[in-house]
Amino acid sequence: xxxxxxxxxxxxxxxxxxxxxxxxxxxxxxxxxxxxxxxxxxxxxxxxxxxxxxxxxxxxxxxxxxxxxxxxxxxxxxxxxxxxxxxxxxxxxxxxxxxxxxxxxxxxxxxxxxxxxxxxxxxxxxxxxxxxxxxxxxxxxxxxxxxxxxxxxxxxxxxxxxxxxxxxxxxxxxxxxxxxxxxxxxxxxxxxxxxxxxxxxxxxxxxxxxxxxxxxxxxxxxxxxxxxxxxxxxxxxxxxxxxxxxxxxxxxxxxxxxxxxxxxxxxxxxxxxxxxxxxxxxxxxxxxxxxxxxxxxxxxxxxxxxxxxxxxxxxxxxxxxxxxxxxxxxxxxxxxxxxxxxxxxxxxxxxxxxxxxxxxxxxxxxxxxxxxxxxxxxxxxxxxxxxxxxxxxxxxxxxxxxxxxxxxxxxxxxxxxxxxxxxxxxxxxxxxxxxxxxxxxxxxxx
Length: 446
Ligand SMILES: [Zn+2]
Hints:
By secondary structure, the protein is an alpha/beta fold. The chain has two domains: 5-66 and 365-415, Urease, subunit C, domain 1, CATH 2.30.40.10; 68-357, Metal-dependent hydrolases (TIM Barrel, Alpha-Beta Barrel). Helix content is 40%, strand content 23%. An eight-stranded mixed β-sheet has the order 3-2-1-4-13-14-15-16, with helices on one face. The protein has a four-stranded parallel β-sheet with strand order 5-6-7-8. The longest helix has 22 residues, at 424-445. The chain is globular, with a radius of gyration of 22 Å. The termini are far apart. The site of zinc ion has 6 residues, from loops.
């Protein structure tokens, strides 16, 4: 018999939901990891013969999954969580969120808000998050510091904000950010033209050209509400997605966030271009924005992934909870209880995100050669007894607090619910300090 092969880490678990192959649950399997990559996934009995691991972790009641991919959010907005709730969208934006952003958002705010968001996301099983917010350099810096993976969609807008003066300033700063993180395995950059109604044709065209040159994704809020679509139709005679298509913005690198309004023609444009949809069900519910027809999109061959959106409109960054909402909502919206089954719901939060990012070779499933971004979920809680179908239990019955372990690129991030790299007490204290400042200011303004 050949000598056992040295590996850095062997994780043996009761169940593994590898996502690829699809619709699969493996029992008593082990994941071998060397450096930052998966070496093998095989029955535990075989793994113990074949490998000599430097470290062996046994998880007797747990399921291993690929790390979750949160495809849309505004991480620093965690510091505005619960600041203004239960308001109509435009009141919420114009009277609360935009003034608060103008008053408070700077580099320091972003650093503290993003740290809070990363702590919450790791505790909930997310190992990759996409972000679109001002001060993307702060987001990139913090993600890099904690070795959390992120897609930074640097914003592009027609009007000035605390971060940039005009469209060309946004683009210039964004390209600099892209250059700074060109070789990073943690920080990936993308264009983030905010929405059709905040970016005019000139900057949109520039984004089209540069995104093609750099071969990086474009993420945009699109068809979030019926109001957005009817206003655009009144002003231009076109639905926003048609305008983007004509500008050349819709490609297989494009991630369309929300899409609660999908006509036959809209669906045809998504199908023709291979653009992806990022579904944010809880934000859409909370802001009464509408319902994304996930079942219809999936049956039409459109890749649909999932995001939480910012904590100010959710109000958490719990992607497992989001997956559950998506699975339930897809059934209600389509009138079909078979829509978006448990495996498909988990794919939205893993491999579909990886595909939209253009990183499916590295992320989204537990397959040899991919990055070792792995989470463990404890299924011994009373709420998941008995376990007939682990994938169903994870989607329909498991709270985020049952995520016990997380590795990003083979490095331990969450160790039996303890954050390895982030000082949670300091994070709490900073959040409380910001809340005190913001609250005092709001009270004075009243
Ligand atoms: Zn958003």
